[in-house]
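Researcher: Let's do a round of design. I'm pasting the structure tokens now; please hold your answer until I've finished.
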């Protein structure tokens, strides 16, 4: 953290007038009036706005902000006057660059003919002032603020989150101050032009291996739509129009996939524009101004200096490429120059038009040459800083931004930076991401700095007492299934599926298609809200497949499953559709999470991760896939796993479990056991502790083959605390699920004659999680039988608006006020008497 904070990319201001650098110039002006808010109210609002997306120390300030919220209005104002709360931003703030443009009168003769001798400097300066009609001073600066809501490094933080925040979201503001001298009063104008950049607002992951670059869209269009809308709604709060400039390269397959999904999402909202692929006017509007202008001249009516808003920026450009670094910076520099050139020409022409002469023309041309030279330098520096934050190196194409052309040196520099980025992504970025999450308070079980607050315990007590007023719960149904497919394909009777010749056991067996639906919907009128399907050996575990994950089989199964669910809905005239929220695959192990479409708006924080355990963690033929999510205010984690095989390898299976529990880590350090509810479903490969003859005899007699706990090796390991501590499993009232002759009801008749076993299991733990049904289905195109579990879970719902209202009422509770006043009186007394008793109350 110390290294990150000392990198020269963080800024703060302690002045009361501009203590919150997380706000741009335009935001500091009241949107409902044409004047700037008072410094006192501005300071107070600055202190309160710790939720600003551009503030990087909001987590550190939580204790102070909570303390501040419990103060009376008078005490709050006194607290703010001391500047205890100062926001820091990360990004780039340039120095002010000053230029002067002298405009001379046509009525005066040339300087060369009338300039006095150099011995008379005072007379010379006086002579020049007499010739000068107007002197225009221009100050230019650039400010970029990087959002903290979805912050991180290049390959660890991509796309959008459930709140509509995108990675590498930057607000860049070009500021121009124009001062007209030799006029009374001396007026000046401040011009601000704001642009945005940010990752493509889709759920995707970017895998940049040594062999290929892959873009993986982790949610479909329907599941993405709500977050996509939230993102643009946030922008629309500040800008009435958004012009999207999409710079993704259409010639690269992986960028084209992302670009097409981006446009598809825009079209689904009915806001498509026909201006081409480089830019889409997401919300078409009129001819409003696209810059912001303030006149700082004296308000003659008020008799004092009062800034007045002349124009307010109504639209904004939102630019993106894949990383929102190099290409984006080049285009934003061009847009900034075009806009400033238009504004300045308009401002200066009224002075030049009355005094057209060669000297003024030369001054004018020289002025703009210098201005654009510095403008390019500012944007090149800006690009380098933002690139170092996100990718660890300076920006590519910096030489083009600085000089307007690409050079051999620039090409070599780009190659060096590209190699450095590869190194950073493989060896540096993961630890840097952890440090960023630690700074922002994103890590699991992280707690803010505690500030002594005398009313905290009372507030918490009163809030807990009134919890029922702002929270409630609903019941949801969850279906979880696990199936070792032995590399088989979906049933033939599902149309549009291709089949391997090895699928001979069921090519003509339509019974499997019927049983597939019975597995997914085990009893009539059953409508689960959430479905988690765990597959093992979804592909044949050949040496080639172990090295590279092939997603095609998973896609075919997804398509078949969704068709069966649609078929069930049609047959029973159900109104609720299902969508695939997230799916993840590790070689042969796959997990597919399906939810009702009407639940999408209540789901957030969806992540998928994998963990290899094959060959002690080197290969993915064995391992686990986990998907986490939050439904309303209750978190869930689903895990499917494939443990070590073999009749007597319990110790290795125990080690697989420990490796997965401790090593399968989601973003921000969250692990499997850090969730309210956890459900495992997989081929755990634990066997029955009996000989083959006894097991088969018991099954033949109508039993399960191992009714006692002593016979069940998994339950024995759980009893000793080796695996699945604190987990539960429903009573097993079905026959062993392994191993069958494919396509039959007969257990293994091969030479090996494997002992039947319950290798396929479902275990769970959680608050208010109840198992309703635990059974198996009779699908016969694998040597396993699928297992399913049906659960009921209570999901907590917190009404945040009502909670905030109740919190405000609690702060005005008589008991809270009494304790607060006693504390403040004692604090002031201790402060004023500290010189005599050497004590300090705080």
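Researcher: That's everything. Go ahead.
Model: Designed sequence:
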């Amino acid at each position: 953290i110390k290294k990150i904070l000392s990198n020269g990319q963080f800024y703060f201001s302690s002045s009361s007038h501009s203590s919150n650098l997380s706000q741009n110039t335009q935001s500091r002006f009241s949107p409902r009036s044409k004047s700037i808010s008072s410094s006192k109210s501005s300071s107070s609002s600055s202190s309160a706005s710790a939720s600003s997306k551009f503030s990087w120390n909001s987590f550190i300030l939580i204790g102070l902000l909570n303390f501040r919220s419990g103060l009376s209005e008078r005490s709050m104002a006194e607290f703010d006057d001391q500047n205890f709360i100062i926001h820091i931003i990360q990004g780039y703030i340039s120095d002010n660059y000053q230029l002067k443009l002298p405009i001379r009168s046509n009525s005066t003769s040339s300087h060369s003919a009338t300039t006095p001798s150099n011995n008379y400097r005072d007379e010379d300066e006086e002579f020049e002032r007499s010739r000068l009609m107007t002197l225009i001073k221009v100050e230019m600066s650039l400010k970029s603020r990087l959002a903290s809501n979805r912050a991180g490094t290049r390959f660890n933080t991509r796309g959008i989150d459930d709140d509509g925040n995108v990675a590498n979201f930057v607000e860049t503001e070009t500021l121009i101050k124009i001062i007209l001298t030799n006029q009374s009063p001396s007026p000046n104008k401040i011009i601000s032009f704001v642009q945005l950049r940010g990752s493509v607002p889709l759920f995707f992951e970017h895998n940049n291996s040594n062999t290929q670059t892959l873009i993986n869209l982790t949610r479909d269009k329907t599941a993405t739509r709500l977050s996509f809308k939230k993102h643009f709604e946030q922008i629309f709060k500040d800008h009435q129009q958004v012009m999207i400039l999409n710079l993704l390269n259409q010639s690269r397959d992986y960028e084209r996939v992302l670009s097409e999904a981006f446009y598809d999402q825009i079209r689904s909202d009915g806001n498509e524009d026909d201006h081409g692929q480089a830019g889409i006017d997401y919300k078409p509007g009129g001819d409003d101004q696209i810059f912001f202008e303030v006149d700082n001249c004296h308000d003659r009516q008020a008799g004092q200096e009062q800034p007045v808003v002349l124009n307010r920026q109504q639209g904004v450009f939102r630019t993106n490429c894949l990383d929102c670094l190099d290409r984006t910076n080049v285009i934003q520099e061009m847009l900034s120059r075009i806009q400033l050139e238009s504004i300045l020409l308009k401002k200066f022409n009224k002075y030049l038009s009355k005094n057209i002469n060669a000297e003024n023309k030369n001054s004018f041309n020289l002025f703009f040459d210098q201005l654009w030279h510095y403008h390019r330098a500012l944007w090149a520096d800006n690009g380098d800083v933002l690139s170092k934050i996100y990718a660890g190196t300076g920006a590519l194409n910096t030489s083009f931004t600085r000089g307007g052309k690409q050079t051999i040196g620039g090409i070599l520099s780009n190659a060096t930076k590209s190699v450095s980025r590869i190194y950073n992504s493989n060896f540096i970025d993961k630890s840097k991401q952890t440090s960023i999450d630690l700074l922002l308070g994103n890590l699991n079980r992280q707690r803010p700095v505690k500030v002594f607050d005398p009313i905290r315990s009372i507030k918490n007590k009163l809030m807990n007492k009134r919890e029922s007023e702002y929270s409630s719960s609903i019941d949801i149904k969850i279906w979880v299934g696990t199936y070792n497919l032995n590399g088989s394909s979906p049933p033939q009777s599902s149309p549009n599926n291709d089949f391997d010749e090895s699928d001979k056991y069921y090519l003509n067996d339509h019974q499997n298609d019927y049983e597939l639906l019975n597995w997914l919907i085990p009893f009539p009128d059953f409508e689960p809200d959430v479905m988690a399907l765990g597959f093992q050996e979804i592909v044949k575990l050949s040496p080639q497949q172990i090295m590279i994950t092939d997603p095609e089989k998973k896609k075919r199964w997804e398509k078949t499953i969704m068709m069966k669910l649609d078929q069930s809905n049609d047959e029973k005239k159900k109104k609720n559709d299902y969508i695939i929220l997230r799916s993840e695959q590790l070689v042969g192990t796959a997990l597919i999470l399906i939810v009702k479409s009407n639940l999408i708006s209540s789901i957030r924080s969806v992540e998928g991760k994998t963990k290899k355990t094959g060959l002690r963690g080197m290969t993915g033929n064995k391992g686990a896939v986990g998907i986490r999510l939050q439904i309303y205010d209750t978190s869930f984690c689903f895990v499917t796993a494939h443990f070590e095989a073999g009749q007597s390898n319990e110790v290795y299976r125990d080690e697989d479990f420990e490796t997965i529990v401790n090593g399968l880590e989601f973003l921000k350090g969250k692990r499997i056991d850090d969730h309210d509810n956890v459900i495992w479903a997989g081929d755990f490969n634990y066997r029955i502790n009996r000989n083959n003859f006894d097991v088969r005899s018991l099954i033949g007699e109508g039993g399960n083959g191992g009714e006692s706990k002593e016979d069940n090796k998994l339950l024995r390991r759980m009893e000793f605390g080796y695996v699945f501590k604190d987990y539960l499993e429903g009573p097993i009232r079905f026959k062993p699920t392994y191993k069958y002759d494919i396509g039959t009801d007969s257990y293994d008749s091969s030479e090996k004659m494997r002992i039947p076993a319950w290798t396929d299991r479902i275990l769970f733990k959680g608050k208010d999680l109840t198992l309703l049904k635990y059974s198996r289905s009779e699908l016969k195109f694998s040597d396993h039988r699928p297992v399913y579990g049906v659960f009921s879970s209570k999901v907590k719902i917190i009404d945040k608006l009502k909670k905030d209202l109740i919190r405000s009422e609690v702060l005005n509770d008589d008991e809270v006020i009494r304790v607060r006043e006693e504390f403040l009186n004692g604090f002031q007394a201790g402060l004023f008497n500290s010189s005599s008793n050497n004590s300090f109350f705080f």
